[in-house]
Write a structure and sequence with these properties.
- The chain is α/β, with parallel strands linked by helices.
- The chain has five helices and five strands; from the N terminus they run βββαβαβααα.
- It has helices at residues 41-59, 75-94, 104-112, 119-130, 139-167; strands spanning 2-7, 12-21, 24-34, 63-67, 99-102.
- β1 (2-7) and β2 (12-21) form a beta hairpin.
């Protein structure tokens, strides 16, 4: 199962693609979509949308996972972040890829075991879980991979829970 993880941002949107086969995770691709910072917001949102559409078309993920918007420093930042998240969801919808949302604390807890983990701890564990010794991806890509891994973990848990209900 291929999963696309997305860490939305109006300036930098991280993406990560992982594959799960028989419980083993592997890295397919990870990177960032860097928008033209001096461009108008509609242009920047279009850049995010069209690049994600390309990524979805190329890799055909079964699911996508995106981080929920947390409270930003100011209302303008929160609005821009929400708009970036919205175009990412729209790109997934266009590609007919189901979207699952996760809280930042749940993602960190799923990866590190602690909901308030530092970004460096998350990046270290993402690399370990994917078997990458010297990752060369940006922090935003690492965060996107963490969202994808969190989704795989959540789906495993739900399958196990469902199986125990059917047998118990």
């Amino acid at each position: 199962m291929i999963v696309l993880g997305i860490d939305p941002g109006s300036r930098i949107t991280g993406y990560g693609l992982i594959n799960e086969v028989s419980g083993r995770l592997s890295l397919i691709d990870a990177g960032t979509i860097r928008t033209t910072t001096d461009a108008e917001m509609d242009v920047r949102l279009g850049q995010i949308f069209f690049r994600l559409v390309e990524i979805i078309s190329q890799h055909r993920p079964a699911d996508s996972a995106i981080e929920n918007v947390f409270q930003a420093r100011n209302p303008s930042s929160a609005l821009k972040l929400g708009q970036a998240r919205g175009v990412a969801i729209a790109a997934c919808a266009q590609g007919r890829v189901p979207v699952f949302s996760y809280e930042p604390t749940m993602i960190k807890k799923s990866i590190v075991g602690v909901g308030r983990a530092e970004k460096s701890q998350v990046a270290f564990m993402v690399a370990r879980l994917l078997g990458v010794s010297k990752p060369d991806w940006a922090v935003d890509a690492s965060d996107a991979l963490a969202v994808a891994i969190c989704h795989v973990n959540q789906q495993r848990f739900l399958r196990l829970a469902d199986g125990s209900r059917n047998h118990g």
